[in-house]
Amino acid sequence: MKNIIILIVTCFCGLNGYSQQDxxxxxxxxxxxxxxxxxxxxxxxxGFAQSLGAQPSIPGPTLIMNEGDSVHIDxxxxxxxxxxxxxxxxxxxxxxxxxxxHLSFDIAHMDHGYYHFKAxxxxxxxxxxxxxxxxxxxxxxxxxxxxxxxxxxxxxWNGGYEYTNENSYFCSEIDTTWHNDSVLEHDHDTTIxxxxxxxxxxxxxxxxxxxxSDQQLIDENVTFNSVVNQIDYxxxxxxxxxxxxVFFPPALNARIIDSDGRPLPVEEISDTVYLYPGxxxxxxxxxxxxxxxxxxxxxxxxxxxxVKNTQVVPVSISGDVDLEEFEKELFNFKVVPNPFHQxxxxxxxxxxxxxxKIRIIDVNGRIxxxxxxxxxxxxxxxxxxxxxxxxxxxxxxxxxxxxxxxVIKKIIKL
Length: 414
Ligand SMILES: [Cu+2]
Known about the structure:
By secondary structure, this protein is mainly beta. The chain contains four helices and 26 strands. Residues 84, 129, 131, 136, 141 line the site of copper (II) ion.
C-alpha cells in the first residue's frame, strides 16, 4: 500500500511538477508616440508603452511567459480618438479575451481593459490592436509573445530541443504616408470597416526587423552571434503586409522545426523560410564552421511576388572554446604561407597516428575540395592545398576527426 501511495504522488509530481505562476503585465496604449527612422526622420506612431512617461516602443514590449502560467494583462488606453484592443494572435484563448472588438470588448479613452488566459503551448505568438487593424497595426500597435516551456528553460517546447541562445526577428514595414494625422485620426465605430476610411495605396519605404532597418541592424540586440557547434533557436515573426523570404547561411545548417506555436509534423532542413503576414516560424541552427556572414530578409510584394526590399542581419560565428582532445592537438595547425598565391601547405603535428579528413569550403559553406580520410603518422605532417582554388578570396580549411570533431582555419588566396 505504501508503495502505491508513493507511486501516485510521484505521478502527480510528474504531471504537475512545474510551478505555474500568476503573471501580470501592464501596458499603456498611446496614439501620440514618435519613432525615429533609419534616415533620421521622425514619424507619428501608435503603440504600447510600459509607463506613462515612456514612448511606445516599435515593436511593443515582448511578453514572455511559461506554458501553463495564468496571465493577466491590464491595458490602459490613455490615447484620445479610436479605442484600442489587444488581440492575442495565435493563442488559444476564449473569445472574451481574444481582443477582437465586436466579439469581445474594446477599450475607450482612459479605460482599462483586462485580458486573462492560461499561457498555451510553448512557441512564438504575437499581439496587435484589432481596432481598424490595417491602420492601427501599421501605426505600430504590435509586439511579440514568447511562451517558454513550463519550466522556463531554453528548450523549444516541453520535451523539445535544448538550445544555448535564442534570437527573435520580428518583421514589419512602415509607409510614412500612413503616419499622417489624416490617416491616423479616423472615426471609429465597430460597424465601420476599414474600407470606408480613405488611405493612400500602401507603399512602404522602411522595412523593419525588431523596429530597425538598414544601418541600424548592426545593433547588438539584432546581430546573430554564436560559436561553432552551438545550437541556437531563432524565432521569426511577420506582422507586415509583405511576405518574407529569409535566407540563412548554409553553414548554419538551418532546420525549420515549428510554425505558429506548434512543432511541425515533419521538420524541414532548409536555408530558406517563407513567412506570410501573421506567421511565425522557429528555426534551429548549429554552425559547422567559424565564419562571418549574414541572414537576408527579402520583403515580397504579395501582389506581384517581386522583392521590394532586402534587409541584412550580420552573422558572426567564432571558434568553439570548449575544445575536445583532437581539437587541442590540432588547434595550432598552420597554413603556410597564408595568404598564399599558388599553393600552400597545411602543416600539423600529431601525438600519435590518426585518421583525418581535410575539407576546404567557401564562406557560404560550400564544399570545394574533400581530401578523404587518410592515416597520418605521429610527428610532423604536411599536405599541399591551394592549386584547385581558382579564385581570389577567403576560404576555410577544416580538419575533421573520425568522431566528427572539426578544427578550422581561415585561408586567403591572393
Ligand atoms: Cu488600436
